[in-house]
Design goal:
The complex is a heterodimer. Chain A is of the alpha+beta class. Chain A contains seven helices and five strands. Chain B has ten helices and four strands. In chain B, helix 3 packs across helix 4 and helix 4 crosses helix 5. Classes of the chains: A alpha+beta, B alpha/beta.
């Protein structure tokens, strides 16, 4: 999904609000923030949804709402949206609980897709291209590397379900390794960058030989 | 069901009418408890794990061990999962670990540009700044500038390599052991390895 969340490389942002090693306190600044993550574990443990579906739900927040909503709150809304979509509870029940509207994520634009069967077993040192494809469902490659060629620096010894499938709750997710693919800064952003290289962890289905 | 531009509330332009984040979060939890989906204390139990178990002190311990034990260093770099597993530090969002070795010529920095993925058990939960749009947008394109703004100056001759956590690998940086730490114990060394050193935006300092 070419969503608002895929903002790596976007320009115009200001300083990151942090000085190295400054005290950031604990993981939560308010107790309620734990409900965002707690809700993820609840859904996963009970087999209601996968963490991939949570990521996709957050990606489906209306763009302006996404940009204006603080982090943990996005996950509260994402989890709530999934629970409504999965009919565990209704939006009316949530509205009744607070007496005010409870906006949720927008519907998925796709039913997801299965992993490819024609994958190549890439190895360290291989030159690979991120497939130049466009898909409206959940994906785990950022747009900055679409169509770009890089070098494999690691092939995982473990395998995982394909995000574009499990992110939609499908049962044809398969299991495949991921490749760490190194792209030079110049190949990604020409002269307008100070990074030497970016390494992206990519599922085998996303890649083709270069 | 979903919010559209037409539902923007006059008093808070850009956002729809809704209860506060806290009210909605607590309402969600209560509805789940009322339906018997969530047991009492479920969220509180996880909060405790996040606050007390998942910690950069673990990552610091691994770095200090790697600095003082060449065999462990080799294991950490060749099979991070096994090395972290030896300490019993694998866990949610930290099941496949790759350690990134800094050197005199390369500085590594970790990010998750699509959301916030972090090696929770050995770095702790990600801080607000790591999850910010500013960091997610800028770190993979101008890391030298972003680090400099944070107060971490990387010499021009050192390349910066950014790792984007887009799948299930979870990363930790193995920084260069600083000058002036000769003879230090592993415990002393661990104390100078901060959460920010493990993410890659800070360098460990001898004193």
């Amino acid at each position: 999904m070419d969503g608002i969340h895929d903002l790596a490389g976007m320009q115009g942002f200001g300083r990151v609000d942090h000085i190295a090693d400054a005290d950031v306190g604990g993981p939560f600044h308010h107790d309620w923030e734990a409900i965002g993550y707690g809700g993820i574990f609840l859904g996963v443990e009970k087999g209601i949804f996968s963490i991939d579906e949570v990521r996709h739900a957050v990606e489906r927040l209306e763009p302006l709402y996404y940009l204006m909503t603080p982090y943990y709150e996005r996950y509260v809304v994402g989890v709530a949206s999934l629970l409504v979509e999965k009919r565990v509870l209704t939006q009316d029940e949530l509205v009744a609980a607070t007496g005010k509207p409870f906006p949720l994520a927008r519907p998925a634009l796709s039913q997801g897709r299965a992993p490819r069967q024609d994958r190549s077993p890439f190895a360290v040192g291989d030159r690979v291209r991120v497939r130049d494809d466009h898909f409206a469902g959940h994906v785990r490659y950022p747009a900055y590397c679409r169509g770009k060629v890089g070098t494999v620096t690691h092939r995982t010894s473990a395998q995982w379900p394909f995000p574009d499938a499990i992110g939609h709750g499908r049962n044809d997710c398969g299991s495949e390794p991921t490749l760490h693919v190194e792209f030079t800064g110049a190949d990604l952003w020409g002269d307008d960058t100070d990074v030497s290289a970016v390494v992206v962890d990519l599922f085998e289905t996303y890649l083709e030989p270069a | 069901m979903s919010v559209g531009v037409e539902e923007m509330h006059d008093n808070r332009p850009g956002l729809p009418l809704q209860a506060s984040a806290e009210e909605r979060a607590r309402a969600l939890y209560q509805v789940l408890k009322d339906k018997g989906v969530a047991a009492d204390g479920f969220v509180e139990g996880w909060q405790k794990v996040f606050e007390e178990d998942f910690s950069p002190r673990r990552g610091a311990e691994l770095v200090a061990r790697a600095w003082t034990d060449p065999d462990f260093r080799d294991l950490l770099l060749s099979d991070g999962t096994a090395a972290v597993g030896q300490y019993g530090y694998l866990g949610p969002q930290g099941e496949y670990i790759v350690a990134l070795e800094d050197s005199a010529s390369v500085k590594h920095v970790v990010t998750c540009t699509l959301c916030s993925c972090t090696a929770w058990p050995i770095l702790g939960l990600p801080p607000t700044w790591y999850k910010s749009f500013e960091y997610r947008a800028r770190i993979c394109r101008e890391p030298r500038k972003v680090l400099a703004e944070m107060g971490t100056d990387i010499p021009a001759e050192v390349a910066i390599k950014v790792y984007d956590t887009t799948a299930e690998t979870r990363y930790m940086v193995l920084p260069v052991r600083p000058e002036g730490t000769g003879g230090w114990s592993a415990e002393q060394l661990a104390q100078i390895v901060t959460k920010d050193c493990l993410i890659g935006v800070a360098l460990p300092k001898a004193g």
